[in-house]
Amino acid sequence: MQTLWNDLRYGARILLKRPTLSAIAIIALALSIGANTAIFSAINTLLLRPLPVKDIDRLVFSIALREGFDPFGSSFLEYAAYRDRSHSFVSSGVATQRSFNLIGQGEPEHVRGATVMADYLTTLGVKPVLGRVFSAEEDHPGGPPTALISYALWQRRFGGSPIVLGQSLNLDGTTCR
Asked: What is the pTM of this model?
């Protein structure tokens, strides 16, 4: 125990003798620890922790590879042909990421979202906190435009109020329910 105490006193004397060098060393250690923590947190969130979906081990992600096209973009016709000819899957869903301009009920806001097929959320086993998932009647060209908002948007824009159910949203000039 005496050796540890002597080492601590010696270290403190050296640090006080050269304050600039000590400050540089402490800042370098702090930055290194901070960067290491950030990288581990990102890896833990993205790779190690499973996604919060039902039957994650049975989930399949497909990519359509075509020369000269976005490898992650598939047309609805490709998806429909794949879905109708598949006998191996219980359900399937497709989503295309996009951005929307949310107009009305406060300041206009640019929000990220997705255009999804009705069975997308049920395939993932995800249910909304309030309301319902999309119905089959809404899942065809000319069907009524319907929107499902994220929990974060619900809290930020609508204060978490359940009154938002059934209200209309204006997304890119289209009125959605």
From this structure: 0.63
